[in-house]
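> tool_call: predict_assembly(chains=two)
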Amino acid sequence: MNKIILAPAGGHKTQSIIELCHLGTGSKNILIVTYTTTGQTVIEERLWHNACFKNQCHVIGWYSFLLKHFVYPYVFDLFPEQVVSGLHFVEGKGPSQYKRGAKRYFDNSGRAYSNNIGKLAYDIARCSKGACVERLEGIYDEIYFDEVQDLVGNDLEILELLLKSKIKIIAVGDVRQSIIRTSRTDRKNKKYIGLKKIQWFREMESSGLCEIEERVSTWRCNQEIIDFADSILPKDLQFPNTESLQDIETDHDGVFVVSWINLQSYLDRYSPECYRHSVASKIAEGTEAINFGQCKGKTVARVLIYPTKQMKEFLKNRDFRLKDQSASSFYVATTRAEYSVAFVVENPEEYQIAEWVP
Amino acid sequence: MIRRIHIQNYRTFKRLDLKLQDGLNIIVGNNEAGKSTLLEAISLVLNGRINGRFIVDEFNPYWFNTDIVKEYFEAVDRDDDVPLPFILIELYFRTDDQPQKLRGRNNKFREDCPGISLRIEPDLEYINQIKTYLSSDHPPVLPTEYYQIIWRGFDGTPLNKRPYELRTSVIDGHTIRSTRGIDYQTRQMLCDYIDEKDSVDLSVAYRQSRYQLTATMLSKVNERIKEETKTVSNHDLGLQMDQSSSANWETNVVPHVDSVPFAMAGQGQQVLMKIALALKSSQEKSNYVIIEEPENHLSHTSLTHIVSLIDKLSSGRQTFIATHSSYVLNRLGLDRLILLHKGEKAIFDDLSQDTTNYFKKQSGYDTLRLVLARKLVIVEGSSDEMLFNRAYYDIVGRYPVEDEVDVITQGTRNRRALELCHVLDRSVAVLRDADKQPPEHWKEKAKDYLKDGVREMFMGSKEFGDTLEPQIIYANQDREGDLKNIVECPDDKDLCGFMTSNKTEYAWQIASSEININYPQYFLDAIEFVRNL
């Protein structure tokens, strides 16, 4: 049975994939599809580390997956004359949005635009009259998708095609962490964007294509941090509460606010990893910080966050509803930490959160 | 299973599109017909190697079909804007064949199936260099240094090594005499016997022993060298055993046959060994077997043995054999035949079912003669054959065989042979009896296969007799006595009746007689026709 495993940050999602790779008698062909290149490297390293030689496991990025298994083999079913030469990575809208025909999907040298590749691949799959899927069935027994929450638009159609195939599909992810996505321009399945992706998974489950396994344990964050992180998410989406299995005690555990005055001593004492919204965010002089968008997938002991205005609003008033996108970013940043999370604020007394003082 | 091969502009083949069969495929043709080239093309695309070396290292201007190159440079001389020639070789597997990862439509016919293509084409990165070359005073040789080699699956992804599912055993008749032991393919086959663990153990032990030699025996030598050269150089000079990758154990292992190094074994024995090796490697490990002229260097007894081995080999593996031997062909089955002629194909597919069945019943020898002859004369019976040979000798001064004219007896089924010649586009003269019909009647019946100046039919007019004997008597009507003497016909017998009831004997008498007789006009016409071919 196909399975979608949803687990919180630190819920051993990647670990589950590695474990799945070791299951069985060892004659399976397995493909592991991840969205980020970081994810790809992490899985490849762990597979090596665990010496997974039993099954044939291959790791591939999402765009390469579409390119290699849909576009290259069957592009001629859609565009009979098209020459394909690779991928043209597009951030945001891209140059081809108003073009028609093959020009919408390929640049002049035949590279496929990444923002439209989901639609391209799906259209090719349909035109191939099942050949695409049949071919994949001939190559792989099982396909695992990591970070499945990042798939949007036509990617979901492709996932649905595969859920209907003979291949056993296992997808892991965390809808709460929907901060990046494969395409910013794909309009299809718009109602499932971001945190609402959970609805799509539930629909797949009710049409009998897969079962959803919701895991509620984290091995990373302590209970205080994960409770706080859970509280960031809109209540109406009914995410389950997470239970922490991490019970190490240090001299500084939990969620704190720090004033700008004490910031330097805090940094000196705990050396947290610092996260900010963007380069425009104000941070302590002479220090470094990572954008929210780049911290995904990490595990660190301590986190320090430079909150945005919206986030501060939320910190003051827990009934304040953050936009889905901000809630996800905030959730991701918070859940990197094992022991402590601290927010840098001007007036600590305005918050109902313990203030750290030296 | 390779079900189709498509070749363009590669060596003998301007354009070849062949359907291949499961199991055995027997490739037959004259020298220069492209048998070896076809086998070479298959192994080239399957392995990405030729003669054990990578394509890039071996590729040269002579890989191109000479006609194509000639046409190209003629067009260039006329200032026609023509694209540089390319080479294309594609192997099409069955749609449900493994490996499915090679499946897609990246092939000439946009077929959806697994497959591999090799395309050698001008690299447009070098467009300026190419233009400069072509606009200079250049020889009629293609600038292959500006070509790129694209070896990829039908899925569109480039291959950098042979897909491990596609094992090929190549057995060529060439004998190995080099002291390096064995060729690449044989080494591959042998290495299939060594599993991963053995291989690792061997590798460690081998390196260890080399290291030991350096550390022990060579260290004394090195001390001495160091001592004697220190006045010349500030650096330590010395010797050590080669530890580079070229010093792998694989390249230093030599197979033995009954304790005799492989290279020292007899030619026939080498071929036998190679076939036995290919046979023993499991089917998963070698799905394709390529055998070139297995009959070379073999005694008839060994050949019998080999043919039965090949028979076993081809069950479950697709096997390609090039052969000159009618014995091989006959034993392994005519329906497996692929005929090549001057870089073009003719397969039994193109023949009518009746004709195919007919040739299946024939001995392979006769069919081979039909296929391989340069100029053909088809006659009905052995008496016609003997008389035609003699007539040719009387007129030309040589026997037909000396002029590469093959005279073949095909009985009354000459139309089958004619159909085969038509498919092969062979030149042929067919001699037949009138059988109560005017020549036009027979020509009309065979008209689909005849072609003026290429394939013609010759027969006597029916007024002079239905068969050969009255035709001869008519041609010699003013010297019937001579004829009676030559054929030793008793005086009291009717000449025609005597000849008709002693066909072989009278023909032999005429053919070996010291006196020349006259021949029917259609014999003379046929000889004239054949000489002009």
